[in-house]
Amino acid sequence: MTKTVETPNEATVPIVELRQVSRQFGKKSGVVERALTRVGLNKPPVTVQAVQGVDLTVRRGTVLGLVGESGCGKSTLGRMVAGILPVSQGEVRWNGRDIATMSADERRAGTLRTQMIFQNPFASLNPRLRVAEIVGEAPRVHGLIQGDEQHYVDAQLRRAGLDPALKWRYPHQFSGGQRQRIGIARALAVQPEVLVCDEAVAALDVSIQAQVINLFMELREQLGLTYLFISHDLGVVRHISDHVAIMYLGRIVEQAPVTEIFARPNHPYTQLLLEEMPRIDTQNRAFPMLKGELPSPLDPPDGCHFHPRCPHAFERCRVERPEVKFIAPGHRSACHLNDEK
Amino acid sequence: MTRTTDSIIAAAVTAASAPPPTALLDVRGLRTWFATHAGDVKAVDGVSFALQKGQILGLVGESGSGKSVTGFSIMGLLEPPGRVVEGQVWFNGTDLVGLDGEQLRQLRGKKIAMIFQDPMMTLNPVLRIDTQMIETIQAHEKVSCSEARARARDALGAVGIASPEERLSAYPHQFSGGMRQRVAIAIALLHRPDLIIADEPTTALDVTIQAQIIAQVQKLVREYQMALIWITHDLSVVSRLADQLAVMYAGKIVEYGQVDDVINHPRHHYTAGLIASVPSRNQPGKRLFQLAGMTPSVLNLPRGCAFRSRCDHADAACLDMPELVSEAGHAHRCFHPVSDGGMPR
Question: Is B308 within the bounds of a domain?
Fold first, then answer.
């Protein structure tokens, strides 16, 4: 694969940019239901605020780690970045262009450049297709193969660390780690620039996880890839990322370069997450406790979403949503405490 | 549970030669095999360990290592084609392997309890929490419904569920994942069992919820002086929770000892590799230490040490299976154990 020549434009314009992106999920209400709601015989339809007003920038060739608990909207965000889920409000920009204004052709090219790696390697591969077909189908359909298709497939498999001799097998004949490599080979086969990895190593055994993380880092170096690396595992994120964004109940609460966020976490939620980061340690035998659970996104708390669990919450946190503000160069946080100091 | 004549003889022979067990739980030479068309799958192949009252054992291994089957074998929860072909499980002076279904039922829930990975599978989705908890109490004790309900409420309170009285009349789907696991733990604790076997109980939960639950379990185990076997693939969880650690690989314990010794001075290259490959033990951005290859299939194990194809130190000696060698309470199954200076970096 030829490395893309960076024009000055490409160097300055972020490869992926989100501007005030929101996404709601809800049932579409029918005519009767709407009529009933109007006369007060039916409750208004419930909507889940999965993502709320998120600004995010991913620069070319960097890795952005996105961390949060389950249900915080990180997968929804990843899907919107990959262009497989439309936004409710806001803009997703690829190379500086809003995808809503793109023509169908441009959109297709853009979607090809942004590929996803999924968490569950058992569910994300078609069990009835052989590996050669899983990996070869997309590049063939999109006319990306010059020359022999099987040569092309072999090269993709080899790059993902799989023996091409196994390509006539079915997914069930592989272990979890190998299946994840097949998923990686499939994504790479369409020559993407951005990979959205949604908990891509969470389902793997520890020893296999290290192999796949190393593969991601090698591929980044070889192909100049950009990653949005979604994970709940701070240890993995710290290892692989350049920048880290912390998400809580649909909002980004803190964003900073990786060394900065681990050295000087600002938001109380980040601080607590770091404290609870699982580490191999036989000395400290007490488990710190972050009280409570992630509230339901059906009924999020007013003001700062984190205030019911926050040890420093005061009156203002209960009523006013904190703005995301710069607290240091490149370091943004959404906490009222920063105004108090 | 039926046993083959061979295993009864084998058990009798070993039992006769072994001194009477003093520990709460004493597993000796446990072999659990699954008969398949392709031959016997030796899921657990000669596992021995002992556990005292009030102690926590971390049983660590990757998928397919036999850690869960070990737990099921102790509980007598094996389904055919799985069977204990050899070994004993001494619990309070009784060998559980020989017991029939009814005798095991008397013990399970009362003296030994189990917590599973997925609380949605443990709890009956169409019954309210109080129904399930009262049923558990009345299965072993003759108490009135209202008394059982009061005990159920106290048990929910003990695992940190707010307003237990109201939550008793809720259905499992009305709880979050973390709360469901708390309910499952409360049910396991109802009879204050002597032994709890927890099979990956926090794997499906968020780290924040995981920490809450582990802290709660840690507190209750100390308070009630229960013994706990915590089965997991996650070294970081057990390194801070367990007293002893047993590392399993391909159906065998490859390393066993006090948690400090195993984590800080691992002797087996598999344990050392697992610890070294955790991202927080590596410099960020640098290549992670990785164990090559993958876990061999237990159906078709290589001759000798099962780890040798992934091990840098394997040589001709490793074509034989090493014995579990113990030095000052720290046992390992390796001909070329890691010396302290030789940790992989």
Answer: yes
Q: How far is CA A215 from CA A78, A235, B51, B57, in A?
A: 21, 17, 41, 34
Amino acid at the residue A52: Q
Per-residue pLDDT reduced to its tens digit, A31-44? 777 787 777 777 77
pLDDT, residue A10, reads 53
Q: List, as one string, the DSSP characters of A15-55.
A: SEEEEEEEEEEEPPP-HHHHHHHHTTSSPPPPEEEEEEEEE
B237-279 residue pLDDT tens: 899 899 999 999 999 999 999 999 999 999 999 999 999 998 8
Separation of alpha carbons B163 and B149, rounded Å: 14
d(CA A241, CA A229) in angstroms, rounded, equals: 8
| A114 three-state secondary structure | strand
Report phi then psi at A34, rounded to 5: -65, -40
The pLDDT confidence band at residue A289, using thresholds 50, 70 and 90, is low
First to last CA, chain A: 52
For B59, the enclosing helix (H) or strand (E) is strand B56-60
Residue of B nearest to A208 (CA): B294
- With an 8 Å Cβ cutoff, are B208 and A235 in contact? no
Distance, C-alpha A153 to centroid of its chain? 27
Kindly report the pTM of this predicted structure: 0.85
Q: What is the pLDDT of residues A193-205, one digit of tens each?
A: 999 999 998 888 8
Decide if B41 is inside a domain: yes
- The CA-atom distances, in angstroms, between B243 and each of A285, A307, B169, B269 are 11, 37, 37, 21
Q: Identify the band that residue B343 occupies on the pLDDT scale cut at 50, 70 and 90.
A: low
**Closest residue by Cα to residue A200 from A228, A175, A170:** A228
A100-113 burial string, b = 16+ CB within 10 Å, else e? eebeeeeeeebbbb
**B217 domain residue, yes or no:** no
What whole-number distance in Å separates Cα of residue A173 and Cα of residue A131? 10
Q: Quote the CA–CA distance of B43 and B185 in Å, as a whole number.
A: 27
Asked if residue A243 lies in contact with residue A257, where contact means CB atoms within 8 angstroms, the answer is yes
Give me the CATH number covering residue B98. 3.40.50.300
Residues 198-237 of B with CB under 8 A from A: 206-212, 214-215, 218, 233-237
**CB pair distance less than 8 Å for A176 and B63:** yes
Domain count along chain B? 1
> Which tens digits make up the pLDDT trace of B81-116?
899 999 999 999 899 998 988 999 999 989 999 998
A294 interface with B at CB cutoff 8 Å? yes
Q: What is the structure's pLDDT at A8?
A: 46
What is the three-class DSSP state of A322? Answer: coil
Looking at beta carbons, which residues of chain A come within 8 Å of B282? 239
* Residue B259 in domain: yes
Enumerate residues 6+ apart whose C-beta is below 8 A from A172.
A127
Interchain proximity B277–A293, CB inside 8 Å: no
A49 strand-pairing partners: A24
CB B139 within 8 A of CB B119: no
Residues 69-88 of chain A whose Cβ lies under 8 A from any Cβ of chain B: 69-70
Contact: A239, B279; criterion CB under 8 Å: yes
Please answer yes or no on whether A280 and B239 come within 8 Å at the CB atom: yes
Q: Which domain holds residue B59?
A: 1-102+240-345
For residue B277, the chain A residue with the least C-alpha distance is: A210
